[in-house]
Structures are given as C-alpha cells and as structure tokens.
Amino acid sequence: MPAHPAPASTFDAVIVGAGVGGLYALYRLRKLGLKLRVFEAGGDVGGTWYWNRYPGCRCDVESLEYSYSLSDELQQDWHWPERYGTQPEILRCINHVADRFDLRRDIEFNTRVKEAVFDGNTNTWTVTTDTGRVVSARFCIMATGNLSTPRTPGYPGLERFRGKWYHTGLWPHDGVDFTGLRVGVIGTGSSGVQSIPIIARQARHLYVFQRTANFSLPARNAAMDPAKERTHKAEYPARRRAAFDTPFGIAGYPPPVKSALEASDEERRRIYETKWAEGGSISFLYSFTDLLVNKEANDTASGFVRQKIRATVKDPKTAELLCPSDHPIGTKRLILDTEYYETYNRDNVTLVDIRSKPITEFTVTGLRTTDADYELDAIVFATGFDAMTGAMKEIDIHTDAGQSIEEKWRYGPRTYLGIMVAGFPNLFMITGPQSPGVKSQMILACEQHVDWIADCLQHLREHGLVRIEAEPEAEDAWVRHNNEVADRTLYPLANSWYVGANIPGKPRVFMPYVGGVTAYKKKCDEVAARGYEGFRLVAGGEMHRFAAQ
Ligand code: N01
Question: Considering the chain, what is the average pLDDT of its residues?
C-alpha cells in the first residue's frame, strides 16, 4: 500500500486559503489561463473576516483604503458606509468579490490542507486534505494568513468549566448574547479592546483579565463623509499607486518633517492633541519622524497617551494599571478603540491585574488567580494567535529531500522576500514572514505579492522553466537585512506577537519586514527585473511543463 494514494487531480497551482490573498490569487492566476484549485478550511470565503466575528470587530485601516484595487469598477461601485469597515461589512464585500468574479467554482470549502510534499523528480507538490482529497500541482501557493491560528492559554481545568467559552478568532456565526451574564475577558490586544466596551454594555458584570496594558487610540469612527468618498473615488488609481510610496502602504497621510525632540513641549502637545482628535494610528505615528526609532522621542508620545488614559479613567488605581509601561508606543500593534478607556468607569466592569496575580486554573464555576476566585458564566479568550508562522507550521510541508518547514523554521522563520523558502521549490507564500504584510495595508500587501507571483509564473512559462527555488545565500542575506532593519528601530523592545512573545517556547525572532513598503516593493521589482535574482530557475522537458502551456 503506497504511503499516499495516487493524486486524483492535477492542477497548475493549488492555493491554500480563500481569504483576501487566496481569492486574489485565484482571480489573478486565472487570467494566466492556469488550472487552479483552492482549499479553504472555513465554510466560506473571507479568511480573517470569516472567523473573527466577535462583537465590535472592525478594521483599523480606513475602509476606502482597506479594499481590493483589482478592478476600478469594483472600487467605484462599492459603498463603504463608515470610516472604518465593520467585520460584517468587509465580509460582505469579500463575498461580493467572490460572486462578481465567479470565484467559488474553484474553491473547496470545509477542507483543511494537512500535508504538502514536493517531489523533486517531477517538480510537483502533492497536497492532501482532511477530507481525503489528494491532488498534485506544479505550484503551491500558501495564502494561509498571518493571524489565522488562534491560541488559548494552557492553564489547567478549562474542561471543568461549566459555563461557555469563546475565542475571538473562532466566534460563533449566530453571535453570543451576554445579557445578564458574568463574563470574563482574558486579553487586552486589539480583539479584547474592541470587544470589551460592547460586552460591558450587555453583561451583568465584566471582569477584564489583563496581563499587559497596551496603547490604544480613539478610532473616531463615523458615517462615511460623502464628499470624502467622492474625492477618494475620483483619485482612486493615483492613490493606490501613491500607497506604494509610503512606509505602511497607505496614502493620504502627510509624512512628518521633524523630530519630536526638535519641537517645543507646547508644539508637541498641540500636534498630539490634533492627531488624538483626528483618530487613527498612522496619523498619530506620523506626528514626528522619529517616534519608532528614538526612545526619547517615543517617550513624548507614550507619555501623552498615558496622560489621556489618566484623564479618562476615574479610578486612579485602574488608570495606572491601564497605562502601558513595558514597551514604547507603536512597537506593538497600536490599537484603535471606541470608548475603551471610558468603559472602566462603568460600575459593572472590573479590571483584574493578572501580571501580579496570575491565573492559576479554570474551575467549575470560573477561574482562579493566585489571590481570588472569580465566578463566571462565560469566558472570552482574546488571547491572540500563533502569528505569522503558525498556519504554515500546522501543515506538514516537506520535500522528498527530507526537509520540512517545521524543522527549517525551528529557530524562527527564514525566507527570501517573505515569498519563498530555500529548499522548498515552487512553494510561494502570500505575505509570509520577513515581508511587510502585517506592518502595512494587508490587502495592498496581498495584491503586491500575488502580482509578483503571477508575473513570475508567466516568466517561467515563457522561458520553459518548471522549477524556481530561493538560493540559500539570497535567503541568508534577506534574513540578515530584516534583522538589521528591525534593529535600527524600537520594535524589538516590545514583547509582541511580532517576535513570537505571546506563544510560550516560540523562538524570539522579529518576523515582519519593517524597512517600509516602498523599499520592499522596489527590491521585489528589481529581483524580477534582473531575471529573478537570488532564485535558481530550472528548465524542464516537455512532460514537465505546466498543464496550461
Ligand atoms: O491578539 P494579541 P489580538 N494569559 O496577541 C493576552 C490584528 N487585529 O487577537 O500582551 C493571559 O494582540 C496578551 O497578553 P500579553 C492586529 O494586528 C486587528 O488582540 O501577551 N493573557 C494580550 O493582551 C492585532 O495585533 C484588528 O501579556 C494572555 C492578548 O491576550 C492582532 O490581530 C482587530 C495570555 C492577546 O493580544 C492580534 O490581536 C483584532 C495568557 N496565557 C486583531 N496569552 C483590527 O484591525 C495571551 N494573553 C482593529
């Protein structure tokens, strides 16, 4: 009996994931005439926006920016009702894209890829799913997402708990009504901070279990301003191009011109107040040139936000607990909220410091910390994800040469451009580690990667090439460059998911590329223009060509 049943179908490319990146890959690669198959673990399209349905979930990038640019008609037609898109609205748009471009017919839903094995003789990947499908493809494109592997803490006793528990990243589709319940939320990252004000309004009592305080700024969400929408739509193509000339891939924020240390106290305060009133994280981080590279400059911004927290939260002890003190502002994902700090002024909300008095176990009726028992009807884990590498490592990806991604990334991810991994030919990642993905507008990042991959596949086809593989030296240089760039910033000072700090035992390696979208795209374009510099390209005989040739 062979270890694997013979592949039932053969494709040019298998795409893993039907979120924003996977759907665009399907759309774009279809235009090359390739035979494609998408496998998606969820019951429908949307990825992040399919799974994260917790109360208050919305994007922290403005809706006019956080949207596909793949069709001007689409971006002109689509109306975003609010400044920031809600999860249901973003998911509605993604569904619209899937229908409008007839994408679903190539997607198998409720199908999780378990294994992908490369055969160096035929230069093909064999992909096996949990539904028993075995298919082969010349190329495998991992659109598996950066924040798609939810994690709950390993405290003992959860199976004893008689109430209901939820993870923000795996939220029930029909919603949860917390009315009249005693609820505990564990975690105060973006998901916790967005959901806490809404759960507080429903619950009889809400306990927020905070291990680390995070910086959060007001989102100032509002109904879409029709004049702004009209102007934006008139300028859409130019704005999309301009976005690539910005560090975070988002146009429309005037770049800062001076150091925070060159400004007087009064000028600094005035600028921070303006940005605070405007709402938004990029705008705030753009107050001065050096907030992310100079600790002293950053202290001025961090101090400003701490003052705002103290001015908002009435109980001084609670306010102090909510003031972040272990990382410079912006070095963890800067959160945008709606009435987060105000929520702690409610009588039915208690902040519990689990840094000084950690949770020890779950009990039948709630949870226990080192100094108290909390009676709860429901627990919400807003405890985040095995970010950036989790989804790739959950799939058993290996080659017939005996290499596995699990083993290769044991001490942290290693990639060339965040797109390919040396030793794993014909395997592409969309917004993989060491690309700017999570430090930029994700849809733009996905589109840029997919366009690059599509151009690459076109190049291979035109030149009769059947195999592309990152060279180890190019990968080493890229990893080194990533580390050097990160070390010139304050980012590595934070215990964030960017460095894997939220997962016990995960190697501490700074994973996103923070040299900016402009520099990154330039590098990708140069690599392609130089005939895929840093990649080894292999020609093949007739039988090895892609099916669509
Ligand atoms: O997860 P997180 P998230 N015991 O990892 C705590 C994107 N996103 O889902 O800091 C107790 O940020 C943990 O504490 P600590 C966005 O990029 C975007 O909130 O590790 N607590 C932290 O407080 C974001 O950054 C949007 O000490 C534990 C929290 O849980 C990313 O997704 C909305 C714990 C986890 O915070 C992830 O956000 C939502 C433990 N064992 C998400 N383990 C928007 O666009 C973890 N924690 C607005």
Answer: 96
Q: Which two tokens stand for residue 269?
A: 């305060």
Probe residue for ligand 1, chosen from 86, 89, 191, 329 as the CB with the greatest number of ligand atoms within 8 Å: 191
Ligand 1: distance of its center to the CA of 138 in Å? Answer: 37
Q: Give start and end residues of each alpha helix (H) in 158-261.
A: 190-202, 226-234, 236-243
pLDDT of residue 474 exceeding 60, the answer is: yes
Model confidence pLDDT, tens digit, residues 13-28: 999 999 999 999 999 9
Residue written as token pair 């176990």: 361
Are 448 and 521 contacting, i.e. CB atoms less than 8 angstroms apart? yes
Tokens of 344: 């702690």
Of 78, 127, 79, 74, which is closest to residue 101 (Cα–Cα)? 74
Is 70 exceeded by the pLDDT of residue 33?
Answer: yes
Report the C-alpha gap between 185 and 176 in whole angstroms: 14
Q: Is the minimum distance from the CB of 247 to ligand 1 under 6 angstroms?
A: no
Q: Domains of the chain: which residue ranges?
A: 9-149+387-545
> pLDDT tens for residues 533-542?
999 999 986 5
Token representation of residue 189: 């990252």
For the record, the structure tokens of 483 come out as 């580390």
User: What pLDDT score was predicted for residue 7?
Assistant: 72
Distance 48 CA to ligand 1 centre (A): 14
Amino acid at residue number 103: L
Burial class (CB in 10 A: 0-12, 13-18, 19+), 144: buried
What is the residue type of 520? Y
**Topology, domain 9-149+387-545:** FAD/NAD(P)-binding domain (3.50.50)
